[in-house]
From TrEMBL:
Cytoplasm is among the record's keywords: yes
Chain ranges of the AB hydrolase-1 domain: 121-383
Name assigned to this protein: Proline iminopeptidase
Family from the record: Belongs to the peptidase S33 family.
Main localization category: cytoplasm
Keywords in alphabetical order: Aminopeptidase, Cytoplasm, Hydrolase, Protease
A UniProt-annotated Pfam family: Abhydrolase_1
NCBIfam families according to UniProt: pro_imino_pep_1
EC numbers, comma separated: 3.4.11.5
Location relative to the cell: Cytoplasm
Catalytic activity: Release of N-terminal proline from a peptide
Length: 404
């Protein structure tokens, strides 16, 4: 039998800081869903015991000589505090409502709603920027509980004009999110975003903290120079040299001082074929590195000229302009504005696109947020371990909302 323990430092008579977590008996997990959970505090009952279903937790505070060990059946009422959350994706569903919202003289964004029309609203912020939404995005949410809102950001997906960079900044998107919330008559909502979606989720919540009931973030991207340099200036090439060389070779040697700038020149060329060639190379590089193991369906997206043009042009536009943030560490510097928002961060250990250093930096700045590190995953939300924890994070917020 494996015996796991929680080592803790007593903070008060009923609060312990968790240094390591372990369980008796060992947890049964699939090879694709192992994770490390960095939770912050455990609050014992009057007897000092915890219960999580049929598993037993052992809490040890060595400095005070305290030990509490649970047995099945003890304090079953505390199961409500630590339930076993669903980790399976929900079935495919169709929208019950959709439309287009004109957000400026130039831009119109596509939106849709699915799930429970009277449920708790959650807005899905897609990646890229420029990636657009997909029907599979709805599957992270319980359709009986959530009112699921998806929308395509400016220039992406079904939004028009396609791949347009004019009036397309982070602050424009934040304004669009608010316009959509008001259009749908939603007082406040949960925010869910991965990759660039995590960037936008942080920026939006820092601008409108009173409108956010909770957040689920995945594949953290803070849009700092070191993150962009890692992926586009040769860092990630050390792991994916075979995928890197076609991306590199499109640019002549005398322009390789900055690949982001060199691609920006081509993605904004007057020659549409030059645009498409650059867009395919840019998109293919990201699609080939987004999974721990190659995903052919994902890679094929790089062959779609329409998708690639919006994806590459808008991403490059935002990266050249450093997300339109006033400083490199802007999102970390403003964590105090959202520290109170219940949040789960899900991060693949071997994420090459958005390496774990960013999730770790966010975790250090915001220890109140729950960090889940998936040990056998890369970047994509569709990797089994990441998908499981995203569903569980939504279930946790659902459980909190139901108990409120």
């Amino acid at each position: 039998m494996m015996r796991l323990s929680i080592l803790g430092i007593a903070l008060s008579s009923n609060s312990y800081y968790c240094a390591s977590l372990s369980l008796i008996p060992p947890i049964s997990t699939s090879s694709s869903s192992s994770s490390l959970s960095c939770s912050k505090k455990f609050t014992p009952s009057a007897s000092g015991k915890f219960v999580t279903g049929k598993r037993n937790l052992v809490l040890r505070g060595q400095s005070v000589g305290f030990e509490s060990e649970l047995k099945p059946g003890d304090l079953m009422e505390s199961v409500k505090e630590f339930p076993e959350f669903n980790r399976n994706l929900y079935p495919n569903i169709e929208p019950y409502s959709s439309g287009f919202l004109k957000v400026s003289d130039i831009h119109t964004i596509y939106w849709e709603e699915s799930g429970n029309p009277n449920g708790h609203p959650v807005v899905f912020l897609h990646g890229g920027p420029g990636g657009g939404t997909a029907p599979s995005n709805r599957k992270f949410f319980d359709p009986d509980f959530f009112r699921i809102i998806l929308f395509d950001q400016r220039g992406a997906g079904k939004s028009t004009p396609h791949a347009c960079l004019v009036e397309n900044t982070t602050w424009d998107l934040i304004s669009d999110i608010e316009k959509l919330r008001e259009h749908l008559e939603i007082p406040e909502w949960q925010v869910f975003g991965g990759s660039w979606g995590s960037t936008l989720a942080l920026a939006y919540s820092q601008s409108h903290p009173d409108k956010v009931t909770g957040m689920v973030l995945r594949g953290i991207f803070l849009l700092r120079k070191k993150e962009i340099d890692w992926f586009y200036e040769g860092g990630a090439a050390s792991i994916f040299p075979d995928a890197w060389e076609p991306f590199r070779d499109l640019i002549p040697e005398n322009e390789r001082e900055s690949f982001v700038d060199a691609y920006g020149k081509r993605l904004n060329s007057d020659d549409q074929e030059v645009q498409y060639a650059a867009a395919r190379a840019w998109t293919m590089w990201e699609m080939m590195t987004a999974h721990l193991f190659p995903n052919n369906d994902n890679i094929k997206r790089g062959e779609d000229d329409k998708f690639s043009l919006a994806f590459a042009r808008i991403e490059n536009h935002y990266f050249v302009n450093r997300g339109f943030f006033p400083s490199d560490g802007f999102l970390l510097d403003n964590i105090d504005k959202i520290r109170h928002i219940k949040t789960t961060i899900v991060q693949g250990r071997y994420d090459v696109c958005c390496p774990m250093m960013s999730a770790w930096d966010l975790h250090k700045a915001w220890p109140e947020a729950d960090l889940k590190v998936i040990q056998d995953a890369g970047h994509s939300a569709n990797e089994p371990g990441i998908a499981a924890e995203l569903v569980a994070a939504n279930e946790k917020l659902k459980h909190i909302k139901k108990g409120a």
